[in-house]
Every structure is written in C-alpha cells, then in structure tokens.
Amino acid sequence: MRNIVWGVKGLLAVTVIGRLPPRDDEWDEYVKHVQHVVARPEVKRLVYTLGGWPTAVQRKQLMELVGDNKKPVAMIACNAEVRSRTISMRWFNPSWQSFSVEELDDALRYLELSPTQQTSAKELIETLLVELNDQQARVHR
Asked: Against a cut of 0.85, is the pTM above it?
C-alpha cells in the first residue's frame, strides 16, 4: 500500500499523505514531481495528510528543493498533532498555511481558487484518497 499519492488537475497540484511517512522509493518519485511543479509558477499546491508526515531527511530534501520559493501552499491536517507539524513548516516558508480538514474551503480560498476550481480540487482529493485506499477519510462537501 502506498503512503503518498499526488496528482495535478488544471493549475492545482495535490498531494495526499496516508497515515504513515512516505517510503524512500515513493519519496524519490515524489521529488521528481515536485521539481516539475516548482518550475511552473502558475501551479498552486495543496497537501492533505491523514497523519503521515515526511521524515526529517525527506523534509530537509524538500526544503532544499523548494528553496525560497514563496508560492502559497495549503496544508490540510486530519489531527492536531500533525497540524502542529504543518504549522512548523511556516518557520521555513511563511507562505505555507496550515488548515484542519474542517477548514478545507478556507484552504482552497487561501490558494485563490475559483468556485469551479474548488470543486475540481475536492474531486481530485477524493480520487487520491481512493487511490491511497483509505476509505475512512472523506472530503467534506
């Protein structure tokens, strides 16, 4: 079973992390994806986690890759412990904002998505959750 999945729909890149940290082989694939996304300044980014979080080595690699890119990132966390981790990412990049699952609509507005784009974003999150094979977490509509 995968611990991280991602997809792009229009100008939105969505990453969903499962309940466990990504395995190194998954992370290597993901880094290639992020390289392409970071190179496209018009693409907005959303990370949705069910509890898993990148390891310290993976976070360091991500921060080196992203650098001082100030493009907004909305991070959705399913519980308070993980949300505190997402909040700590703001120390490295203040344009990254943390939201609870109940604040998904706020996160989508933070990314300045139109209502149509917000609907597409929710559909993509749902698709990725199914791909991750976690039927317990559903997007609030």
From this structure: yes
